[in-house]
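Minutes, structural biology subgroup

Action item carried over from last meeting: produce the structure token record for Gliding motility-associated lipoprotein GldK (Lutibacter oceani). EB confirmed the sequence was re-checked against the source entry. Recorded below for completeness.
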Amino acid sequence: MKKISLYISLALVMFSCGSNEQGELVGVKSSSNWHSERPLGMTLIPGGSFTMGKQSEDVAGSLNSPARTVTVRPFYMDETEITNSEYKEFVYWVRDSIVRTELALFSELMSSDGDPVLEDYKFLNIDSTDMSPYQKYMMKTYGSLGDLNSPTQGKMLNWDAEILWNVNEFPSEEYAEVMIDSIFTPIEDSFEGRRMINVNKLKFKYYWLDQEAAARNKGDRRNFIKQETINVYPDTTVWVRDFNYSYNDPMHQDYFYHQAFNDYPVVGVSWMQAKAFCKWRTKKKNDFLNSKRKPTQVPQFRLATEAEWEYAARGGLENATYPWGGPYTTTDRGCFLANFKPIRGNYAVDGALYTVEAKSYPPNDYGLYNMSGNVAEWTNTAYSEASYYIGSTMNPNVEIDKNHRKVIRGGSWKDVAYFLEVSTRDYEYADSARSYIGFRTAQDFLGTDINEN
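Output recorded by EB:
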């Protein structure tokens, strides 16, 4: 008994010698220091309180935005609207993922004496010696690493092999078979001997957890996991369909396709497509961190709420009519401060007939460009006439699942000045795409002390 007591005493001494806690409650310590990282192309909106809503005459008589004081937390927001070039990266990633998956699956099905060309596109062999015990168990038991969004069952695509898009450069008949059947338009839809990519096949599937529903209702977690499959290619026909008896064919043909418009805001994107882009952007960043073996997951990229959008648009100016203050839309030298329709018929007097580059006109005091004019922007908030009456004054956001009307803000190149005011509300249906609606993304700022970071 004395020996046991001695061992316990020695153990306690050894434990206390190796720790400086002195038996006090010190909390769990992180293995490394953490600092907020500003995403590329975004600016920090410091958060705070402001008077939201109409503070002057409500010209449209909508009576759905009475002035009230609300508070929003700090967050990041894109300096500009998402451009054609940035959205193309999303479209190309979806396109390449589909093609590489089909090439890899076709290559696996072929016999050993099959087409040697497709060998380059096979799934990468995962070295079991390089796998963690978790990965080994998952692959052995479930056949994947638990990625529900992966049609490859957890196998890795070969992203180094070049994809040949020119039909005259296809290296083999087997390669042509995969490309034609998986991504190109059917022969009956072709003309002038041209084979084009079938944009209807460019679909992005993702899963998300409805956290609010899960928090307010009881049940298994799996009941609140939602699946979305979204066609990601923008609707370029909006340039024709939005306007009758107007020649807009060049915009229809070239606006998203031609590199001349790379730095212009993407349009023809529905609210659902904008949400899918946010999910992909989050995945893109997390995939990079995982490749560097960094366990940290970035906060989700998302659409800003209506309150966040208005707070950011005001640029810290209380009771301002426009992002630059107001109440005028020109400088003292007569230069227009936004892209809109100031004079009936003379639509290019402000510098542009349609959209302009995303970094045009002076930014507001938060460094945000074109928060008024150019293109209106999707927000995450459902449109309701009662939003300002039923919404909280702390990070207000009214989300109604059955309400497919979503708030758009900022006005566009086709609108009059009233819709450029930071307090003007408008809406469009979530599955609709327009030639005058784009979006920009936001991201939560973790913590509250914005000065140290």
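Discussion: The domain at 55-78+264-453 is CATH 3.90.1580.10 (paralog of FGE (formylglycine-generating enzyme)).
Next step: EB to file the record with the rest of the batch.
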